[in-house]
From TrEMBL:
The keyword Glycoprotein does not apply. This is histidine kinase. Its EC number is 2.7.13.3. Residues 275-490 form the Histidine kinase domain. Residues 201-255 form the PAC domain. It is an enzyme of class 2 (transferase). One of its GO terms (biological process) is regulation of DNA-templated transcription. InterPro entries: HATPase_C_sf, HATPase_dom, His_kinase_dom, HisK_dim/P_dom, HisK_dim/P_sf, PAS, PAS-assoc_C, PAS-like_dom_sf. PANTHER family: PEROXIDE STRESS-ACTIVATED HISTIDINE KINASE MAK3 (PTHR43065:SF10), SENSOR HISTIDINE KINASE (PTHR43065). The lineage of its organism: Bacteria, Pseudomonadati, Pseudomonadota, Alphaproteobacteria, Hyphomicrobiales. It catalyses: ATP + protein L-histidine = ADP + protein N-phospho-L-histidine.
Length: 495
């Protein structure tokens, strides 16, 4: 079909995407010219075939078939072939004696065979062209940006979504380097990705493209390679899905979660005020007591400097202890981006227990800790994991408030296979009703009269953020156990 038609749709200059002509005056005029040219050519060949020239002139009717094929209609190709065969037979009958079979008969037969073969090949080519044209239309219907490039990186196809999103028309993009045009930022070495595509035929990952306006897009990218009969890569089709807004929404959601987690920690510390005051008061009272003792030893005559030194040493030790308590509280209240690190399980559990120990004592809850020796370190955010444990212990104490003595709370930490550590928080409270267990981790679901229903939801989200799991088992009237299973740091894994 002529590319000069004003009604021709925008298209890539590629052997895959054929020209798609829409009805219009220009297209109709062009088709009419092709028809007239085919008829004129057939008449001319017929007249030459009637002349005494000794040759297979009728073979030239193949040109009539090719000219008619430009209209891209099966019926017109068949009509042109039928006319060519009819004219070949007519010329033979008018120019030769039917009583003898000779070279002229052979030439006529060869010509008819050539016309038939040319017709079949033309029809096959038209069918393939239409199939490729249909595929091109389908690619243009996609909302994803899609373009094809040759092994050197030059664009050979550019769909409508790519035009709309990137800002370059197909006519501007085709023939240019995709990487240079879009200033592609890869997550890894470009050569390594290309090697992967050549070896496996495909690649998937996240990369960034720059639009014509200068905006950067984050894209989920999928590449598929096409090979020729010799196994050589001839084309790569790239499909890109814009996830920029989705990632921004995810970042906003993560920020909101962090804000909510911080607010929950603040609320938890509000409930633990008495416990924290008691924890700080103990070393401060020891500082005062040892300071007064030191003064008394100094007033003696002569001063007992050995005892003074010991008293001052105790003052320093208790001051450091108070500082550690304040540090723990400040860390718990820390409002900062997540900082994954290697965490010692023993210190994690002991620090979390220190924050609630006094409140547990006031509620007459006996706390026992059991940490398996040589337990491997875990990977995650220390403050967030501490919040999970504090929340679970506070919830357990509150659940046992109406239970008669003894009230027992146990925190056990042990290996769970070779790849995880399990922290088990168990109480002997009233248990949880079976109908409530499935909804326990849902936001805003609570069994407490004054609860918000966010604590356990945040705990599970925190766990899942670091590849950990948080589950619950409960027996009515016997107690509840929460299992916090956390992956160990990679180098700590043992076969």
């Amino acid at each position: 079909m002529s590319s000069s038609s004003p009604q021709t749709a925008k298209q890539p200059a590629d052997d895959v995407a054929s020209v798609i002509v829409r009805p219009g005056t220009g297209a109709l005029m062009t088709n009419t010219l092709y028809r007239l040219a085919a008829v004129a050519m057939a008449v001319f060949i017929f007249l030459v075939d009637l002349s005494p020239i000794a040759g297979a002139v009728a073979v030239l009717y193949v040109l009539v078939i090719l000219t008619a094929s430009r209209v891209q209609r099966v019926e017109e190709i068949v009509a042109a072939a039928s006319l060519s065969i009819a004219l070949t037979i007519a010329a033979y009958l008018l120019s030769h004696d039917l009583g003898t079979l000779g070279p002229a008969t052979l030439r006529a037969g060869v010509s008819i065979g050539a016309i038939a073969i040319a017709t079949l090949l033309t029809l096959q080519n038209l069918a393939a062209t239409r199939a490729l044209s249909s595929q091109a239309r389908l690619l243009n219907l996609s909302h994803d940006m899609m373009f094809a490039r040759d092994p050197s990186g030059l664009v050979t196809f550019w769909n409508h979504a790519a035009e709309a999103t990137y800002g370059w028309a197909a006519s501007e993009a085709v023939g240019r380097s995709a990487d240079e045009l879009l200033q592609t930022r890869y997550p890894e070495n470009r050569d390594a990705i290309e090697t992967c595509v050549i070896g496996s035929g495909r690649w998937e990952g996240t990369l960034e493209h720059r639009t014509r306006t200068g905006a950067w897009l984050v894209l989920e990218s999928r590449w598929a390679a096409e090979y020729d009969s010799r196994g050589r890569m001839v084309r790569v089709l790239e499909t890109h899905t814009d996830v920029t807004e989705r990632n921004q929404a995810q970042d906003s959601l993560n920020l909101a979660r962090a804000e909510l987690a911080h607010a929950t920690r603040v609320a938890t510390l509000g409930e633990l005020t008495a416990s924290i005051a008691h924890e700080v008061n103990q070393p401060l009272m020891a500082v005062v007591t040892n300071g007064e003792a030191g003064l008394r030893w100094l007033r003696r005559d002569p001063p007992d400097l050995t005892e003074v030194e010991m008293a001052i040493g105790q003052v320093v030790a208790e001051g450091r202890r108070a500082g550690e308590i304040v540090k723990r509280v400040r860390e718990f209240l820390r409002k900062a981006p997540s900082r994954p690190a290697d965490i010692d399980v023993l210190s994690l559990v002991e620090d979390a227990a220190a924050l609630v120990r006094h409140d547990l004592a006031r509620a007459e809850v006996t706390l026992t800790l059991a940490i398996e020796p040589d337990i491997p370190k875990i990977r995650g955010d220390r403050v967030q994991f501490q919040q999970v444990l504090v929340n679970l212990m506070v919830n357990a104490a509150q659940a046992m408030a109406d239970r008669t003595l003894p009230r027992r709370l146990a925190v056990d930490a042990r290996r769970n296979g070779t790849a995880a550590v399990e922290v088990l928080v168990r109480d002997n409270g009233p248990g949880i009703a079976p109908e409530h267990l499935e909804r326990l981790f849902e936001p805003f679901f609570t069994t407490k009269p004054d609860g918000m229903g966010m604590g356990l939801a945040i705990c599970r989200t925190t766990a899942e953020t670091y590849g950990a799991t948080l589950s619950v088992e409960s027996v009515l009237h016997e107690g509840t156990a929460f299992r916090f299973s956390i992956p160990v740091m990679q180098q700590e894994m043992k076969p």
